[in-house]
Amino acid sequence: MAAPLSPLARSSPLRPPLSSTSRSHLPFMAVAGAASSSASAEAEQDISRGRGVTKEAPIPQLEVIGSKRELLSQFASLKMSYRPFPFIGWNRHVETIFAAFFRSLPRVQFRRECLRTRDDGAVALDWVSGDERRLSPDTPVLVLLPGLTGGSQDTYVRHMLLRARKKGWRVVVFNSRGCANSPVTTPQFYSASFTEDLCEVVKHVLKCYPKCKIYAVGWSLGANILVRYLGQESYGCPLAGAVSLCNPFNLPIADEDFRKGFNKIYDNALARSLKKIFKRHELLFVGLHDEYNIPMAANARTVREFDEGLTRVSFGFKSVDDYYFNSSSSNSIVHVQTPLLCIQAANDPIAPSRGIPREEIKENPNCLLIVTPKGGHLGWVAGEEAPFGAPWTDSLLWNS
Prior knowledge:
Elements: H1 5-9, H2 20-23, H3 28-48, E1 63-65, H4 92-102, E2 110-116, E3 122-128, H5 131-134, E4 141-145, H6 155-166, E5 170-175, H7 196-208, E6 214-219, H8 221-233, E7 241-245, H9 251-258, H10 263-280, H11 294-298, H12 303-314, H13 320-326, E8 340-345, H14 358-363, E9 367-372, H15 392-398
Parallel strand pairs: 4-5, 4-6, 6-7, 7-8, 8-9
Antiparallel strand pairs: 1-9, 2-3, 3-5
Helix pairs in contact: 10-12
């Protein structure tokens, strides 16, 4: 249901064309965005004429679902078998934990901007220092949404950031309330259902760079929030494209698996990280009554206990099960009108394969799903930079 990496490792309106700097090196997101209108129109014509969509050659070892799978023929990395790194990639827990502890952490000099929200809350936006001077105003912007309790300090976030910058893109990390030392100014953090902060972040980026195209990448809980945002905004979404990685999608299923076997290790680690954020801002919650159970949240051993004591009450849900059911991004896929690539690992211990909304993705011409046979949760220790470098997904998205 959430990303275990941080606590384990390191406590469509019309847009102008892309800048010439980036046009010659379009990654998957931009290719999908550019092809969206024509590809979907052609697919609809084929279906209406009874011809169906042309079948592409199968991609070795990958499960691919979506009407735009023909786009994948442009990517050399998909023409080879997915090969997990020996030993590390053979077990989902070993891969998940190895990536959390031993993946390299690139050095990045950030410039932090604290954005005040409409409810008097605040989020922290980490931009790469100096890009405001080096890059042109029409440079495409990539917004990164880390997993639960994650932020700009996470290895998977920084590797993606470096890839995007090498292609000439502007990048900003959206650190949710309380994450990566983002300030908490109201008695409310964030949740799987909460899209308002993302709405304000996207509007703020457009205000700063009105001539740019905006894309977004989300991991784990950040991916769930991103997909919910895409479905919520639907036809009016200002994003040009998006990528969802290790999305739990169906939170009741994810919650069920999260409390089994070895997964309890991740559950306990995330609960400790949530409590750490809470205790730094505990005074904001003094005097709250209603259904709040502050002692339960402060002493939670599991994410579910923390959500029952605090999160579900903050966001107006009757119970934690009501919160999980109504916060699942699987319910949003049908409304997505923005080009969306979803990448999952079949053996993900936290975002179960059985929770992936395959049929909904198949029926939506704007969505494409790739499921790798291995990968763990935010691991994907495979490819040219394995085992210590960027995950396999980064080369897929940027080496086009």
